[in-house]
Amino acid sequence: MSAAARPLRIAFVAYRGNMQCGGQGIYLWFLARELARQGHSVDVLVGPPYPDPMPFAGDVIQVPNEMYWAKWFLHDWAAFVPPEEPARALRPLNFYELAASRMGFLPEPFAFSVRALHGLAGRLRAGHRYDLVHDVQCLGYGLLPMQAMGLPVVTTVHHPLTVDRRASFQRDETFTDAIGSMQFYPIGMQAFVARRLDRVFTSSDASAAMIRRDFGVRPERLVNVQNGLDTELFSPDASVSREERTLLCVGRASDPNKGIRTLVEALARTDENTRLILVDSPQSDAKKWAVEHGCGDRLHLAGRVSDEELIRLYRSATLVVVPSRYEGFGLPAAEAMACGTPVVSTDAGALREVMATGGGGETVPKDDPDAMAAAIQRLLDAPERRAALGAQARDRVVAAYAWPSVAARTAQEYARVVAERSA
After folding, report:
1. Domain 9-228+403-422 in CATH: superfamily?
2. What is the pLDDT of residue 322?
């Protein structure tokens, strides 16, 4: 039986596993589930916050840390040294994380990779065998000794950390802030490791170009396998009625890349019956911006919502708007189209690809509130066109982004990597 045909034994390593912590937790859970459904064996070594139960995995090994960075971020200085066991803070990796956090560095990726290396080596000594290790956006130095032990190692990078650092620079108000942004992100380590792994998976051609440019990964080691979407969960429901002239946006105003200020300016340029639901904190700056532009009463901040509520919002919105200045994929656009809801999006980053694939709306230049307002108004005034766009987009998004297809493409690439190593 060929390498492509036989089931593979995969060890996932992920430094944060919970779905509420960002895209890496969602990606880990759904990809591992779908690979298991397709007959592969999956074990997971994962750091906190830990994932939801993963009954489809063989073993889920929790890799603890003291979460010093989170304590630093919350200024919880008293929790840095546990009173019940103060000597625990002096253990080498704990002390590194404590010191690095206090100095403004992000220590989790490196520390997790070393702990995961230790855990994986222990499993190998105990008789467990793997065909391949799949890292999820950690890219710590500890991955390289895994390769030295003879295991192929691949990683997923939805976008390089250079994107986040550039966004952080935009938020910075002082030279000290800029120095903090420069030192916080472990870009040197991640780029060094990425260039040496067997494969780097990503989710769009735009993200692949950014990884080549910023991390220096060779094109032959970089593969766009697309991002996955639970198209059974994100789906239309005819029993949910559309709310008239209601826009929906999923994004944080605190992240300049999400383009929320531009959307607020566009909202002010639409007719007075148009309202916007923004899935963001009730303390979001978007409210202040809306008041400044005279449309504060037309903006509703939904706060953090459950998956069920998010899907209801997608299904009931007239339009979903994605005003991002950069996206490595653009899940809100794909999720909206999977629910049969048309989208107005910028053409920034991978959004141009996602919108062309789904065909469910209009794209406009980033940072252009006039163009965005005009596109919104056109679709608000064209109900038959909206219905046609939504129906078309659903079928095309399922064909391109449903998890079974993404997992199958990923497994094919696994098989190529294993065959290359064997050769």
Report:
1. Glycogen Phosphorylase B; (3.40.50.2000)
2. 98
